[in-house]
Amino acid sequence: MNTLKYNILIITLLLSSLVIAQQTPAPKQSNAISIEGATAHLGNGEVIENSLIMFSDGKITFVGRATVKIARQGQVMNAKGKHIYPGFIAPNSTLGLVEVDAVRASNDADEVGAMNPHIRSLIAYNTESKVVESMRPNGVLMGQITPRGGRISGTSSIVHFDAWNWEDAAIKVDDGIHLNWPNPFSRGRWWLGEPAMLKENKDYKKQVDELTSYFAESSAYQASNKLPRHLPFKALQGLIDGSKKLYVHVDGERGITDAINFTKENSIKHLVIVGGYEAHKVSSLLKQNNIPVLLQRVHSRPKNDDDDYDLPFKLANKLVDAGVLVGLENAGQMERMNARNLPFLAGTCAAHGLDKEQALSLITLNTAKILGVDAMVGSLEVGKDATLFISEGDALDMRTNKLEKAYIQGRDISLESHQTELYKRYNNKYKQQ
Q: Would the pLDDT of 300 be above 50?
């Protein structure tokens, strides 16, 4: 009897998982589409009222005003009164790597060991994640899938959020390696009775020296062509030849400065600062060395006692004013679910100093430039992927960002998710009462 009950339970769970499975990926675009009448926010700072956007075979073929006398291609959609945006990009994300935090078997974000430059997040990316599909109704259509843990976490890749498998999803494979910079300071361990204040990290120099030695050994290995192959050292070669970027996760002023000097000493061609809470204190150094910043979560509290109460809200404006290329990332507590709020982080930046189109660029073209995919996505321009969406209102405002249509590489994707299904189910239930 117990065996029968167990089998029934297993079958029930399997059937329920099929009912709430991810939407089937959309088929390849077969007919051209013309969208006219909407306000087009191109992502590069330009806005076109009464626009005409046409795309075919997954690529944008025309961007201009609807008043231009040109033959419309394929299906013509009237979007008067609505807004068109390029798909938003979520960098430094673990989307698709973790489904349920409490279920270890569904967590592929963190690999064992400290130095893992050869670990590739892409092959662990789950295209059928219910968390991933919940990003699309807010216009977040792409992401940089990033590993966590250790001193060198591994290698990230950029994907779009509608695919059968990780090979189909990939926009750019192995774009960069992620390094967690040692913290020059640490807080007292309150559980041991130590004051919970910042103090100097006595092991900081040792930890930086370990990194220096590791990169020196990698350089020596590359020069000698020794066998057998050393996969971690082999992976670091991309930082030297420029095929990969080094994403350094660091917040403090001293750490950022030391990370910049470290990359120079090790002949690393492309550096990106991730987090950068105190990046505004070294903005001239960042500008001088042409180093972009993927700025920490905007919706957070000040970290230091003497910080302005609204410092996290206006950090982007400070860096943009200093001439630094800035994108927004949303790592931290509940980062996977909160990634769908990416447009509203940009909206907060717009409310604290940035022009609305500048704020939009933080999650579109700027991020695409930082990730090295701006030739394909990030703005509405002829020749780029037709990854875009139509919203009823301002996409940076949570009250009006209601998507009507979304396309990834020209494919008409579903905006349904497990959450929208639940919304409809219980909305109908209470309407009947």
A: yes
